[in-house]
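Weekly modeling sync, notes
Attendees: AB, CL, MP (scribe)

Item 1: holo prediction request
CL wants a bound-state model with 2-acetamido-2-deoxy-beta-D-glucopyranose before deciding which constructs to order. AB pointed out that an apo prediction alone won't tell us much about the pocket. Agreed to run with the ligand included and paste results into these notes for async review.

Input as submitted:
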Amino acid sequence: MDSANCFTYLLLISFLLVGSWFCAIGAQRSAPIVNGLSWTFYNSSCPKVESIIRKQLKKVFKEDIGQAAGLLRLHFHDCFVQGCDGSVLLDGSASGPSEQEAPPNLSLRKEAFEIIDDLRELVHKGCGRVVSCADIVAIAARDSVFLSGGPDYDVPLGRRDGLTFATRNVTLASLPAPTSNTSSLLTSLATKNLDATDVAALSGGHTIGISHCSSFTNRLYPTQDPVMDKTFANNLKQICPTTNSTNTTVLDIRSPNTFDNKYYVDLMNRQGLFTSDQDLYTDSRTRDIVKNFAVNETLFFEQFVASMIKMGQLSVLTGGNGEIRANCSVRNSDNKYMVSVVEEDLESLSELK
Ligand code: HEM
Ligand SMILES: *[C@@H]1O[C@H](CO)[C@@H](O)[C@H](O)[C@H]1NC(C)=O
Ligand SMILES: *[C@@H]1O[C@H](CO)[C@@H](O)[C@H](O)[C@H]1NC(C)=O
Ligand SMILES: *[C@@H]1O[C@H](CO)[C@@H](O)[C@H](O)[C@H]1NC(C)=O
Ligand SMILES: *[C@@H]1O[C@H](CO)[C@@H](O)[C@H](O)[C@H]1NC(C)=O
Ligand SMILES: *[C@@H]1O[C@H](CO)[C@@H](O)[C@H](O)[C@H]1NC(C)=O
Ligand SMILES: *[C@@H]1O[C@H](CO)[C@@H](O)[C@H](O)[C@H]1NC(C)=O
Ligand SMILES: *[C@@H]1O[C@H](CO)[C@@H](O)[C@H](O)[C@H]1NC(C)=O
Ligand SMILES: *[C@@H]1O[C@H](CO)[C@@H](O)[C@H](O)[C@H]1NC(C)=O
């Protein structure tokens, strides 16, 4: 609900006391829940979950704000591969914690997995084993956005952790390649019910973080992409002298560590890093969206939140499906410490009583 609608709504139902409550949350909760999650899922079982996570992440980001980008990307990978079910966290997952041979375009920061399991430990110490790893990833992504300067928003919760993970091939097929043009991005994201506005907004996640050379040297060698700004291209060639160079560079040259709308300003200046980024400004279906985000950060923030909430509901497991993992990188049935975990659960239960 936007604020104008909200106002009309308030007028219409101002005789109802509940009207003001609906509108108070209307601004933050800008996308509907479609897949069984809830805004108040942990209200009684773990009311502190969000404050525990935010407090810890403030500490982590004070040391290294780059970790925020790693956590945001982790949520994206989790949701796109098989659904937001924490499967990306499992040992053996193609971009998971133990995967040494993932190509750079798949590899997630090792620290991201450690940060998530540290959060899991803090949350389970506080509440018992009631919060899923998938929800911790979703909340951590939100906090990464907010603590980097972006919007704060409520995340619908209640995801459960999956029991299986995707193979390498399925993982590769589920994630769009940085070499994709807008046509193929739109086609592939439409299968996830994400439209052109969602694609343009979610790509704005590239306002923070870094990339390996191999994800964009297709635009430098053997011939330089004519769409790319010449000075920008020359600088990238210094950083990546060959296609197999292992260097990294920032995704948003204007403000690499701040979650803002400068990514779209980069695109308008032909300084987008990936084909998938830059083509959003070439393709007529997304060009005006890019322009609007570049001139109006509020608009970008509102749309980013709505699209994140949409993405965060992709094929989630709820109710009696899946489980609450005791260790984010292993299924409970593979967890050799599970016996002691059950004991811990019983202890925290008796403490509650
Ligand atoms: C639209 C299709 C997308 C493509 C093709 C894409 C591709 C990539 C690639 C290739 C990298 C660099 C990997 C490397 O070489 O190290 C990257 C990094 C990143 N992506 Fe995306 N991505 C997409 C969507 C998203 C979305 C939806 C988000 C989150 C909302 C996101 C957030 C990030 C972040 C934060 C980084 C930096 C990670 C870090 O610094 O560790 N991306 N992306
Ligand atoms: C759930 O908790 C939040 C934050 O403490 C509070 O704002 C909200 O009113 C609660 N909702 C319900 C239904 O209890
Ligand atoms: C994965 O893809 C590769 C190359 O496309 C193929 O050779 C291989 O058989 C596939 N593996 C599985 C398990 O499907
Ligand atoms: C990642 O890189 C591999 C080669 O290293 C390539 O086969 C694959 O298509 C790329 N996938 C994505 C999602 O970029
Ligand atoms: C986009 O990429 C696809 C797949 O590589 C290709 O078939 C298509 O011609 C490209 N479209 C445009 C407009 O460049
Ligand atoms: C890595 O990038 C820096 C500039 O950021 C450049 O000076 C250096 O030569 C590059 N190293 C390699 C191995 O390509
Ligand atoms: C990287 O590529 C260059 C040529 O492009 C080649 O000479 C070199 O051996 C390659 N290095 C590795 C480690 O593959
Ligand atoms: C920017 O977008 C916001 C949110 O949609 C809107 O309320 C505002 O009027 C826009 N500002 C301008 C200057 O267009
Ligand atoms: C979680 O499981 C991983 C993989 O088996 C293991 O290396 C790690 O020590 C475990 N973490 C905890 C806190 O038990």
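Recorded for review: Confidence is low (pLDDT under 50) at residues 1-27.
Action items: CL to compare against the apo run; MP to circulate these notes.
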